[in-house]
């Protein structure tokens, strides 16, 4: 469990589940390793 004021980092293969309460607030930040080609290596969608 992650409490108020705490943070956690998890790998992309991990299934994330957020249980919300009436006053729950959270942020999600995504990043990619520097050696990864973010345009071609991360996504499999093709540009039109």
Automatic annotation (TrEMBL):
Annotated ranges, domain TehB/YeaR-like: 2-28
Q: Which InterPro entries match?
A: RmlC-like_jellyroll (IPR014710), TehB/YeaR-like_dom (IPR015392)
Per UniProt, what is one Pfam family of this protein? Answer: TehB-like
Q: Which SUPFAM superfamilies match?
A: Clavaminate synthase-like (SSF51197)
What Gene3D superfamilies does UniProt report for this protein, alphabetically?
A: Jelly Rolls
The name of this protein is Cytoplasmic protein
Biological classification of the source:
Bacteria, Pseudomonadati, Pseudomonadota, Gammaproteobacteria, Enterobacterales
């Amino acid at each position: 469990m992650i409490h108020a004021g705490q943070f956690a980092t998890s790998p992309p293969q991990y299934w994330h589940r957020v249980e919300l309460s009436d006053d729950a607030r959270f942020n999600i930040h995504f990043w990619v390793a520097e050696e990864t080609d973010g345009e071609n290596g991360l996504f499999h969608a093709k540009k039109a």
